[in-house]
Here is the input.
Amino acid sequence: MIKTHQALIDLLNRHAARALDAHEAAMVADALRFVAAEPDCLLRTCSAGHFTGSAWVVDATRTRTLLTHHLKLEKWLQLGGHADGDGDLLAVALREGAEESGLTKLHAMNAEIFDLDRHWIPARKNDAAHWHYDLRFMVEADPAESLVRAEHESKELAWVALADVARLNSEESMARLVRKTSARAVAG
Here is the structure.
């Protein structure tokens, strides 16, 4: 097995050992099976699907998150992107977060997965429909820092109160991120 794949499996196994809801636990199990079965799982050329890394960017109070209005998917989402062969999904998340927002002071809260989501990406132009196995990391940033939107990927960037996220995107994967963030803020 490729060394980066083993590191990814170890990261997924640590996440699987946490108290997850049944839906997320099933997605983690699917991700573990996928990485074991697909040697090219870190490359977007893997037609069945591939891994992505996302930065769930929050402010220091954990009451706001930075969302992007994704140009291709027409949805408000967290920042993130393709691994493109990089087995360090936290580094992918931080890189994508910086590229898509212009933020220079992103700080990962820890090196562990905050949330995992598996979602279907519909076919577009030259890309067949496929799965994204998205590893999401909680990242802190300062809302006072200037934002610079990546125009080729985003229609808009906005700091959004957690209570307002569902108004922009009511999908369960976003609701789960909000619930987890709120639980962490309460726990201190």
